[in-house]
TrEMBL record:
Belongs to the cyclophilin-type PPIase family. Residues 12-169 form the PPIase cyclophilin-type domain. This is Peptidyl-prolyl cis-trans isomerase. Keywords: Isomerase, Rotamase. InterPro entries: Cyclophilin-like_dom_sf, Cyclophilin-type_PPIase, Cyclophilin-type_PPIase_CS, Cyclophilin-type_PPIase_dom, E_coli_cyclophilin_A-like. It catalyses: [protein]-peptidylproline (omega=180) = [protein]-peptidylproline (omega=0). Its EC number is 5.2.1.8. PANTHER family: PEPTIDYL-PROLYL CIS-TRANS ISOMERASE CYP38, CHLOROPLASTIC. It comes from the Bacteria. The keyword Hydrolase does not apply. It comes from Geomobilimonas luticola. PPIases accelerate the folding of proteins. It catalyzes the cis-trans isomerization of proline imidic peptide bonds in oligopeptides. One of its GO terms (molecular function) is isomerase activity. Gene3D superfamilies: Cyclophilin-like (2.40.100.10).
């Protein structure tokens, strides 16, 4: 029996394309959740609404006017899966509540080990890594370099919106 290959998605952005491998073996809940949003076309037209050059770029929940899009239910946090928040990895964004991730994700632009699972308490639980950029890291680096400011009560918002044009599963 051959081992199932991890799914790949192509994320088209207004600054270029990024290919991502999803770790369904280590993060099955996060992967299934992300793919359900991809298959619904949920991310199409949303933005990277939070960009911190020395940290990460976050998207998957807001439009260019910082209006949140309705999400599905929150999922179980898989931060204890042994994966680390290294440069180029994707992780589920969440609130201070451990199991609160829905549609938002972030791409680490530097190694962020402090985001890894370090304990069972909410402040130490960490952020679930569920994917890795396999092509287009130069696009991620271009996005992290955009000028940011404040908008609609949010900080670190790109002055010129960076759109997620589409996210599609790459078929073999």
């Amino acid at each position: 029996m051959s081992e199932a290959k991890n799914p790949q998605v192509l994320m088209e952005t207004s600054m270029g394309n990024v290919t991502i491998e999803l770790f369904q073996d280590k993060a099955p809940i996060s992967t299934r959740n992300f793919l359900s949003y991809v298959k619904d076309g949920y991310y199409d037209g949303l933005t990277f609404h939070r960009v911190i050059a020395s940290f990460m770029i976050q998207g998957g929940g807001m439009d260019e006017n910082m209006q949140p899009k309705k999400t599905k239910f929150a999922i179980k946090n898989e931060a204890a899966n042994g994966l680390s928040n290294k440069r180029g990895t994707l992780a589920m964004a969440r609130t201070s509540v451990v199991d609160s991730a829905t549609s938002q994700f972030f791409i680490n632009v530097v190694d962020n080990p402090f985001l890894d699972h370090q304990g069972k308490t909410p402040d130490r639980f960490g952020y679930a890594v569920f994917g890795q950029v396999t092509a287009g890291m130069e696009v991620v680096d271009a996005i992290k370099g955009v000028k940011t400011g404040s908008k609609a009560g949010h900080s670190d918002v790109p002055v010129e919106p960076v759109f997620i044009t589409s996210v599609k599963v790459v078929e073999d």
